[in-house]
Write a structure and sequence with these properties.
Layout: E1 4-7, E2 35-37, E3 52-71, E4 84-90, E5 97-103, E6 116-133, E7 142-150, E8 163-166, E9 172-175, E10 184-186, E11 190-192, E12 198-200, E13 208-215, E14 220-228, H1 246-249, E15 257-266, E16 269-270, E17 275-286, E18 291-292, E19 297-302, E20 325-328, E21 337-341, E22 350-355, E23 371-380, E24 385-394, E25 398-406, E26 409-418, E27 423-430, E28 435-444, E29 450-461
Parallel strand pairs: 8-14, 15-17, 16-18, 17-19
Antiparallel strand pairs: 1-7, 2-7, 3-6, 3-7, 4-5, 4-6, 9-12, 10-13, 11-12, 13-14, 20-23, 21-22, 22-29, 23-28, 24-27, 24-29, 25-26, 25-28
């Protein structure tokens, strides 16, 4: 009889068997049916730094084989899903052996999501399994929906990758299909690791559907990987359209790099044995005089990037809030403030605003505008669809008021409940009228005393 240990992270941390759905391998999109960690903690493996981790105690020593993981599947929280994880085994909970570091694909955010067979321990003996989170898909918290550990080899011979990836996820490592017969993987973007696993880089290929094959001595198995464009709702932000130095593109030779912008024009020379890639969201123009040297690796592709209207959007101008308008009521200047902090979501800095006390008007009501952070004079074009997004948190549960309006038109108005963890907020709208250089973004923090943090503020058009 096939025997397995099933660890249901949302409900138990010991051996249990629980199937709440008609299809036992499917996982719903309920965020409450998941393990979520937002704070780093000391690892049971004393050789590791503090971080986010799960330790599974099987209550006895077993030979363990296949590991199946369901990532965070809630449509708005898939960025919490774990990406790179480290696997350690132990017989006593004190002495640990690192087995491997692998990549877990992002969940599909669909009710038919069935998780992934991600690793085969090949019968190693263990009582404890430690899963350490090395990275996730962008959020400040890390999450998995469910884990299943089998104590007999599943001997799966169905080649089923079941992968929908985002083009901007970065390389995925040590993926496998579940086929137990030795073989090798081949296909676009595929690097066979020689151990029954492969690495895959969706960014190297771009959006599309790609066939991955697995060759054994007697069979060839095929399945497809779908790469979604970065602007898909299930993916993170598209890369910024950078401002390119035209002199570099006309240089002989053009320096090895990936060049990405809204449009690219070049008339230089790519050097032998160098790799140059042009990525443009609209136009790549190779002017008269442009040459590719023999032996050079040159590619050009139409790949999405987005022009961010927000200036100093990541607050990376050290010691200053350049391009942001700081508003502090005269009664609380010197005690309330706007500044930058190293407590950032990404990059080096984020904004930090502090309201020391409430200000009341003559009518006895709270002056909610006593502390504000603005960026002004944005342009909105009729018929264009826009996305306004940012990350925010506070030191406790507090309310942040958001306003994006100009020339009598309100595009976004909301009251956000912040917590002490970074959270991503996104708004989309289609403009009916053109407003030039007269639309203001306002973060209003005068309702509740406390600390407020912002990072990676974006205003982009969606093609």
């Amino acid at each position: 009889m096939r025997k397995s240990l099933i660890i249901c992270l949302s409900l138990c941390f010991s051996t249990c068997n629980l199937f709440a759905q008609c299809f036992p391998d499917r996982h719903n999109t309920n965020a409450f049916d998941a393990w979520i960690s937002c704070e780093d903690a000391a690892s049971p493996n004393l050789q590791d730094a503090a971080g986010k981790w799960v330790q599974l105690d099987f209550l006895d020593s077993y030979q363990i084989f296949d590991l199946q993981i369901w990532n965070q599947n809630h449509p708005e929280l898939t960025d919490m899903g774990v990406k790179d994880i480290k696997l350690d085994l132990s017989l006593d909970g004190d002495s640990w052996t690192t087995v491997d570091t692998i990549t877990i694909p992002r969940a599909s955010a669909r009710s038919r999501y069935e998780g992934h067979m991600v690793y085969d321990f090949a019968g190693q003996q263990a009582r404890f399994l430690l899963i350490s989170v090395l990275s996730n898909y962008g959020a400040s918290c890390a999450s998995m929906a469910e884990i299943k550990v089998f104590t007999e080899d599943q001997l799966i011979e169905e080649f089923n990758l079941g992968l929908e990836l985002c083009e901007n996820e970065g390389p995925l490592r040590n993926l496998s299909s579940g086929i137990s017969t030795p073989g090798s993987y081949m296909g676009p973007g595929v690097t066979d690791n020689g151990d029954g696993s492969f690495d895959f880089d969706p960014d190297a290929l771009g959006p599309g559907t790609y066939t991955v094959s697995y060759f054994t001595s007697v069979n060839v198995y095929d399945d497809q990987i779908v790469i979604l464009p970065c602007y898909d709702d299930r993916c993170g932000d598209c890369p910024e359209c950078g401002e390119l130095d035209q002199a570099l593109l006309d240089q002989i030779p053009i320096p090895e790099d990936i060049y990405q912008s809204d449009s690219i024009s070049a008339m230089g020379l790519t050097a032998a044995n160098e790799s140059v890639e042009f990525r443009s969201s609209h136009l790549v123009e190779l002017s008269n005089g442009f040459e590719v040297e023999l032996g050079s690796d040159f590619t050009a592709a139409i790949r999405a990037c987005q022009l961010n209207q927000m200036e100093n959007f990541g607050f990376e101008d050290e010691d200053t809030l350049t391009n942001w308008v700081e508003i502090v009521h005269s009664d609380i200047r010197g005690e309330s403030y706007h500044t930058i902090t190293t407590d950032a979501l990404s990059g080096s800095y984020a904004s930090h605003s502090y309201l020391s006390r409430l200000i009341y008007g003559t009518n006895g009501r709270v002056n909610t505008g006593s502390l504000q952070l603005h960026q002004r004079d944005k342009t909105i074009i009729a018929g264009e669809t826009y996305e306004l997004s940012f990350w925010a948190k506070s030191d406790a549960v507090r309310m942040l008021e958001l306003s994006f309006k100009g020339s009598g038109i309100t595009y976004v108005k909301d009251y956000l409940r912040l917590t002490d963890q970074w959270r991503h907020f996104t708004y989309r709208f289609t403009a009916e009228d053109t407003v030039e250089n007269n639309v203001d973004l306002r973060f209003i923090m005068g309702r509740e005393v406390g600390h407020y943090y912002l990072d990676h503020v974006r205003l982009v058009t969606l093609d």
